Amino acid sequence: MAEQYIGTTACDECGARFKVSVKHKDRLGKPVRCSKCKSIFTPELIEPTPLETALMENAEQEAASEVEEKKKRRRTKFEIRQDTIEHIQKEFKKLHPRLAEIAGRRSSEEEIRVWCRDALVHALGYDSKENIRLEHRTLGKSADIVLHENDKVFLVIECKNTKSNLGPNVIDQAAGYAIGLGTEWAVTTNGLIWKLYRVITQKGSGPRFIEVFDVALLDEDGVSEEDAENLYLLSPRAVFGGDLEKRSHERACTNKKRVLKALESERVLKALRIELQNTYKAEHDYAVKLDDESVGYYLEDALGLSEL
Q1: Domains plus CATH for the chain?
Q2: Which of 196, 145, 146 is nearest to 166 (CA)?
Q3: Of 20, 85, 97, 113, which has the fewest CB atoms closer than 10 Å, so is most exposed?
Q4: Where is the Type I restriction enzyme R protein N-terminal domain (predicted)?
């Protein structure tokens, strides 16, 4: 690491001059041996020459550069992810007024397609020539936007005008393009709403969808931090770094059906029964005996499930 200096000193006997580094500043005012003439002298700071000043300033700049480089090397994956999310939020906010203007009048799918392309480039970091194709032909039709890397499509975006409710027919359309192009990721959007799905093919039946996120860009909170965190999943870093895959599995693992099934499991009901009995006894000094079947009934009642 480059040294940092606080000034210059000189030997009283031979006149040899030395730069005083930060780590040796405690030697000022104390007897030391000159490395040139070997005599003893007491170092004090003196006026440096222009050359010495330049050398010390250069050393300081090198030290500062090394510190900055070390900081960059030490950035964690979490910090890099947060920086990316902040950039996405900032750039989507820049595009916000234009989207609001489009939404305020009768818009076409073409306007939304162009706006989405600009968002993909400026906010999410894609190259307009290397990664984005508009109106890509597949299945005898045109997918509005496809994202690709080395000619391999990895995500399809189906754009509609701002009045579209992005219903099941739009999802089916995007899913059909995704399957036809060999990818499992599909987005439906009217500019205002962005919905990301994982499309899973099933033998003997239609595809299954996992909704990864549903983002509204013109709601009361505008482009919130939560919105930016979701939109981050569309970025190259998330797609190719595993964050998108991870979030998809998290959503699939914690869907309502699986959560309810877990709550009905023998292990959960037993743990809940023991917790209810122990906490009640600790509070009221009275032992209540419960069975798992009763706890299951009370759980359904507490969650409002018994009315369904």
Answers
A1: 5-74 (no CATH), 78-252 (3.90.1570), 259-307 (no CATH)
A2: 196
A3: 97
A4: 109-204
